[in-house]
């Protein structure tokens, strides 16, 4: 992003007493001095190139008043100024300070940078922690929605979990998010939507997600997540949508999910489930608001509970590619399914004529 603003002239009290005037370009490194033509009244000027830092310029830069250096460098894009921390300890302390981060962001970012929650957002989180905290404080502190679909190859910023108390909707899809889901995620008490889809998250689903009492939609579709489904999911009694499709997550399906009586959509899929036996809990029969039930590829065994016949609002059911056996509840024939899939369960039996549009007995 290019900044169209021009630097303010430093106050008279901070101007150099010599006849030299410092002109800051977008760079720091090589210094050149321009002499005026004979007879000219112009003052000599020094141009400081900040693009390729060189040792011979360090001494010159460090002799400037630190306040002046800060004013000059505050007009440089953060990704260009961060490497200058290596010039000296003083530069490192300056650039890493909260006050400089605040000034630099004010200069470079538009006043509405937080409205899109993205000014090369990932770049901000490549920098010092002071930039991360100042970015959040300036642009995100009142943010209620984060939706990121661009590249963000970083862990979930801990500062978001500490500071974004007003966050309501959080979606990150195919943006390269890495690391684990921190336990501190349970601190976002106002969160209603949490969706992580096709990133590079690893580790287990933290039990503290069960603290998000206002959550209405939880979607975790991450290939590298593992471990067990936390029973604390049963605390999320306002959920209407629960989708966890993570091939390395293991059962059993927590019986506490039966507490989520507002659920309209339940999708679970654990292709590499190594925990057997692994049954369908009869408690899921309490989810009488369910419209869609999709529990495929979970290596389930046992029977389909008779209580499932009481899910009178069900329009889509997919229990395919498991190891289920026994009779399918006859009550299913009374439901107006848009989709009904039992294929991949060769041991299931049907004590009634199978409707032609059902998908059954496909190995």
Automatic annotation (TrEMBL):
Region described as Disordered: 1-46
What are the GO cellular component annotations?
membrane
Q: Specify residue ranges for compositional bias: Polar residues.
A: 21-31
Question: What InterPro entries does this protein's entry cite?
Answer: F-box-like_dom_sf (IPR036047), F-box_dom (IPR001810), Leu-rich_rpt (IPR001611), LRR_dom_sf (IPR032675), LRR_R13L4/SHOC2-like (IPR055414), Plant_LRR-RLKs (IPR050647)
Which residues belong to any copy of the F-box domain?
58-103
Q: Which UniProt keywords apply?
A: ATP-binding, Leucine-rich repeat, Nucleotide-binding, Repeat
Subcellular location per the Swiss-Prot or TrEMBL entry: Membrane
| Main location per the UniProt record | membrane
Query: SUPFAM superfamilies, alphabetically?
Result: F-box domain, L domain-like
| Membrane topology value | Single-pass membrane protein
Its signal peptide is: none
Protein name (database record): L domain-like protein
The organism encoding this protein is: Rhizoclosmatium globosum
């Amino acid at each position: 992003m290019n900044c169209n603003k021009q630097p303010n002239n430093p106050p008279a009290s901070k101007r150099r007493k010599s006849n030299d005037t410092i002109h800051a370009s977008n760079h720091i490194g090589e210094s050149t001095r321009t002499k005026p033509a004979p007879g000219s009244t112009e003052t000599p000027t020094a141009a400081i190139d900040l693009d390729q830092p060189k040792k011979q310029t360090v001494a010159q830069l460090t002799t400037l008043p630190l306040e002046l250096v800060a004013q000059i460098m505050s007009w440089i894009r953060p990704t260009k100024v961060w490497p200058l921390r290596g010039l000296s300890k003083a530069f490192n302390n300056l650039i890493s300070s909260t006050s400089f981060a605040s000034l630099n962001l004010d200069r470079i970012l538009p006043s509405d940078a937080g409205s899109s929650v993205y000014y090369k957002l990932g770049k901000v989180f490549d920098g010092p922690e002071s930039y991360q905290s100042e970015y959040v404080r300036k642009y995100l502190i009142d943010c209620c929605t984060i939706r990121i679909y661009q590249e963000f190859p970083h862990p979930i910023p801990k500062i978001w979990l500490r500071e974004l108390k007003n966050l309501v909707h959080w979606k990150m899809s195919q943006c390269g998010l890495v690391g684990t889901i921190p336990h501190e995620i349970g601190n976002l008490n106002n969160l209603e939507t949490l969706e992580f889809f096709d990133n590079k998250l690893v580790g287990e689903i933290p039990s503290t997600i069960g603290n998000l009492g206002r959550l209405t939609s939880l979607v975790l579709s991450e290939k590298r997540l593992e471990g067990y489904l936390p029973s604390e999911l049963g605390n999320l009694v306002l959920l209407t949508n629960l989708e966890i499709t993570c091939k390395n997550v293991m059962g059993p399906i927590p019986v506490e999910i039966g507490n989520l009586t507002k659920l309209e959509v339940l999708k679970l899929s654990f292709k590499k489930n190594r925990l057997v036996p692994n049954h369908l809990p009869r408690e899921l029969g309490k989810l009488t608001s369910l419209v869609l039930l999709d529990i495929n590829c979970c290596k389930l065994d046992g029977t389909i509970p008779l209580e499932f016949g009481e899910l009178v609002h069900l329009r889509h059911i997919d229990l395919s590619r498991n190891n289920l056996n026994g009779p399918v509840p006859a009550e299913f024939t009374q439901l107006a399914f848009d989709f009904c899939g039992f294929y991949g369960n060769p041991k299931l039996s049907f004590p009634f004529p199978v409707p032609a549009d059902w998908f059954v007995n496909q190995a």
